[in-house]
Amino acid sequence: MSGNRRYLVVVRAGDDSLHERWLAASERNWDLVVSYGGDDAQIFRRPDVMRIDGKGAKWPALRELLASDAVDWRAYDYVWLTQGDMITTGEDVSRMFDICSGLDLWVAHPALHRDSPTNHTITLHNPAFGLRFVNFVEATAPVFQTRFLGAVLPSLQLNDSGGGLGYLWPRLVDDAGRRCAVIDSVPMQRMRPMHGAVRFEEAPVTAERHDTVQVMAAFQIAEAAEINIGALMRSGERYSLFDDSCDAFMGRILRGMVGVAAGPHALGLVYMAHERARRAGPLAVQTVAPGVVSGDAATRAAPAPSATAVPMASHPTATPVARAAPMPVVAPMPAASPMSAATPMPAAGMRTPGASAGTFEPTVGAGAGPTPDDMESMAALRKLAMSVRRTSLRQPA
User: Is 143 in contact with 180 (CB distance < 8 Å)?
Assistant: First the structure.
């Protein structure tokens, strides 16, 4: 691999992975590591690519790779954790990295073409924008600022499915309204079939769904509302949900979703969720409930199982939260890059209207409750949330 490239792609690949198409670019600003889960001893071996073998599901394999010394991923500015079913070009991957670096994003996701399978319409390409600042990033193909990835690395221990991480990561960003985005100017297509786009509350009870409920309960994320906080046009013009551009912003969001959302009713649900967020305001609602990031929150009990609770054991692919290693001290994040004279867009979170901080009533129960090891892991992640927020963009340059 080149010694002067600033960005790293780590792709989880099977025998049918499409990532070799990305390497056709004449020039690229990224190195490639292939996390291979198959049995072919020769596939994907070439001088400019590092192949690392590892069986099992995507997130356990990537977790093991990042925890090992096999790849010096901390030497790069950004790391894209993706999978081999993404159709894109090497040039677009380079553009994605340049956008992330130029805007000092902490975590982002390329917009997905509209025929891509996903349960999260906020991730689908909206042609009205260059990028949108959001409170959710899909765990399919997130790109991380390396320092932020190092800070949230213990979150990969929460489960093996990746469920809930897309809701958690933006809430560990100090200013999601400027640092967490879906990049519409670099749309990509995902090929892997799914069961179709449905609302979170209607999703089948799978291991990922179950794990999402547990993570949301543990971190007291009260609502699975995926909110566009603001946006940046290709021209440089900015929009925000929390200033005078709100009406024009919502109009662009809804027009861009025509053909994606399943009719006027779905568009109405999107509008109502954003209106609730706007009324709550960027300062009135914390991205993580205040008690979650306090030291005494470690002893909080998880929600009691409901009548529809599905025990963890009934999900063969789900595993309990692993014991977390002691949390390292998180070094201060780098100072923000100059952006523009436009009014900064504040961070915002979502909570059910009228709910007190930390309330959460999942439509599917959170299982039989946490074990002592689960509670230790949750406590470590809560300390992580506090440390990331304390050493954030509030630090002087």
Answer: no
Report how far residue 271's alpha carbon sits from residue 372's, in angstroms, rounded to the nearest whole number.
Answer: 41
Specify whether 189 is located in the same domain as 263.
yes
Q: Binning pLDDT at 50, 70 and 90, where does residue 34 land? A: very high
The per-residue pLDDT for range 318-361, each reduced to its tens digit, is 333 333 333 232 333 333 333 333 333 323 332 222 222 222 22
Distant-in-sequence, close-in-space partners of 289: CB < 8 Å, separation ≥ 6: 219, 220, 221, 222, 351, 357, 358
By the 8 A CB rule, do 320 and 370 touch? no
How far apart are the C-alpha atoms of 312 and 213, rounded to whole Å?
Answer: 12
Task: Give 83's strand partners.
Answer: 12
Last residue of a domain, one of 101, 120, 141: 101
Highest mean pLDDT among 73-77, 314-318, 359-363, 372-376: 73-77
* Token pair in block for residue 77: 């500015």
65 by DSSP, 3-state: which?
helix
d(CA 20, CA 128): 31
Residue with tokens 């490239």: 5
Whether pLDDT at 365 is above 80: no
Q: How many domains does the chain have?
A: 2
267 and 371 inside one domain = yes
Q: Which stretches of 202-342 are assigned E, i.e. beta strand?
A: 228-232, 238-240
Cβ proximity of 202 and 307 under 8 Å: no
More confident residue, 175 or 310: 175
User: Is residue 173 included in any domain, yes or no?
Assistant: yes
Give CA–CA dist 76/2, Å, rounded: 12
88 and 117 inside one domain:
no
**Strand 30-36 versus strand 49-53 pairing type:** parallel
Q: How many Cα atoms within 13 Å fall on the side-chain side of residue 94?
A: 14
In whole angstroms, what is the distance from residue 381 CA to residue 140 CA? 21
For tokens 């991957």, name the residue. 93
Q: Would you give the DSSP letter of residue 171? A: H
